[in-house]
Design brief:
7-stranded antiparallel beta sheet; Cytokine receptor-like factor 3; alpha+beta; Jelly Rolls; Immunoglobulin-like; 21 strands; single chain; 4 helices
């Protein structure tokens, strides 16, 4: 085969590969367009359904309220009418009775005038006596029209105007939520969720973050956070499990929440931090991320280690104090290379820690820098990054060597930064705590 044919064949293969890549890219873009169209149509359908349902509920509620109000007003008219007509009916009965008596008296008087002379005297006497008994000069009083109720309905036409004004401003349709999830960052047994405003004109007073398991039809979104911060660490998540996250906001002076952001899927591959079970003097929660020192020992300060070396450099390790006991200078919270069983405190070699009085220890030696004392509600954070003190070749990496870790410990509004020299190359570390007195309760994440 000639060189020209080889060149042409190579060019043809390259063109075919380029065409395949081009087609693949176009297909991915078509898939993206279909997803975008699905989101527009799907969200539009949901918005229509939400609007129809909401306004149908409003119409039913408004009709019910108006009917109830009409019934109440008609009942008031009925009561006024009944109370006002009763004395008029009584007066009418009295007058009709008097008219009947007068008719009867007239008939007797006319009969007395027509009778013969023999009985005229008796009948005229009887008639006169009866006329005196009836008291023909006594008439019942009939109330004047101004004293009789004249029922009317007072209807304020401004209600319709107010209703029209409120209805014209009720509800809104937006094409983009004012906030969106910006980043999902995996942490041990948790995910750090960050969000941001995408509508600069929206003044947010509070944010609301929700999450649920992905793919489980019966699972409902649960509130994870409500507040002013724009990030939150969602704890107690199972590793290698997809979770859906969404966020919304509430404007300044408003009670209603904005539309939800587009749900984002996140997961963590990192096992959650756990305390080691079975350590004497400590009780653990069901998830083993909370430890309670449940007895005191003046003679020793037992260490509770993590169940495994799950802290990796580059992460943030946090101890949250939810209950506090009496302080002792031997108390400690920190990180160590190994889980040495015989040690009485983390204030030892190959460990860095902070005591409850705020003293910082590196390989058992106390630093001059000191942090605020640890109390209930305190959060202590450890951040580390590797800094090689001496160049370490691949040959002696497994054999160990001098490693320097840059450590940042934060407590309250202060932090200390220092270099920690360890005698071996480590990529994961244990964490631990030790308390002399009971009452200390620590959450780790």
């Amino acid at each position: 085969m000639s060189v020209e044919v080889d060149v042409l064949l190579q060019e043809a293969k390259e063109s075919i590969e380029a065409a395949q890549n081009y087609r693949s890219e176009l297909q991915q873009r078509l898939h993206g367009l279909n997803q975008a169209r699905k989101q527009v149509r799907g969200s539009s359908g949901q918005a229509r359904e939400a609007l129809r349902r909401h306004f149908a509920e409003l119409q039913a509620a408004a009709t019910r309220l108006l009917t109830e109000r009409l019934t109440t007003l008609l009942a008031e008219v009925d009561v006024i009418e009944a109370d006002s007509v009763k004395p008029l009916d009584d007066c009418q009965s009295l007058i009709e009775h008097g008219v009947g008596q007068a008719d009867e008296l007239l008939r007797e008087g006319e009969a007395a005038l027509r009778c013969g002379l023999g009985e005229k005297e008796d009948k005229l006497g009887s008639f006169t006596k009866k006329a005196m008994h009836i008291q023909l000069d006594s008439l019942p009083e009939v109330p004047a029209l101004v004293d009789v109720p004249c029922v009317s309905a007072q209807l304020d036409d401004s209600l319709l105007g107010l209703l029209r004004d409120r209805v014209s401003r009720h509800g809104a349709v937006s094409s983009h939520p004012p906030v969106q999830i910006e980043e999902l960052q995996e942490r041990p047994g948790s995910i750090l969720v960050r969000w941001c405003k995408v509508d600069e004109d929206f003044a947010a007073a509070d944010y609301r973050l929700q999450h649920r398991r992905s793919g489980s039809g019966g699972s409902q979104y649960e509130d994870a956070y409500i507040g002013r911060d724009s990030e939150f660490l969602v704890l107690h998540l199972d590793p290698h499990t997809d979770y859906l996250f969404r966020v919304c906001a509430r404007g300044e002076g408003r009670t209603e929440w904005s539309p939800w952001s587009i749900p984002q899927t996140g997961y963590t591959t990192l096992a959650p931090h756990e305390w080691c079970p079975g350590t004497e003097g400590y009780i653990l929660s069901s998830r083993r991320n909370i430890a309670l020192r449940n007895d005191s020992s003046q003679s020793r300060c037992p260490i509770l280690y993590s169940n495994a070396p799950t802290y990796f450099c580059g992460q943030t390790l946090t101890f949250k104090i939810s209950a506090a006991g009496h302080m002792d200078r031997r108390d400690s919270l920190g990180v160590c290379v190994d889980s040495e069983k015989g040690a009485q405190s983390l204030q030892r070699d190959q460990a860095v820690c902070i005591s409850t009085n705020g003293a910082v220890f590196v390989n058992g030696k106390e630093m001059t820098n000191q942090l605020p004392a640890i109390t209930m509600g305190s959060a202590v954070t450890f951040d580390m990054e590797v800094v090689n003190l001496f160049p370490i070749s691949n040959n002696n990496l497994s054999e160990g060597g001098n490693f320097k870790l840059r450590v940042t410990i934060g407590s309250g509004n202060r932090e200390v930064v220092f270099d920690w020299l360890v005698d071996q190359a480590v990529d994961c570390l244990f964490f631990g705590c030790s308390f002399v007195h009971s009452g200390w309760k620590v959450l780790v994440f």
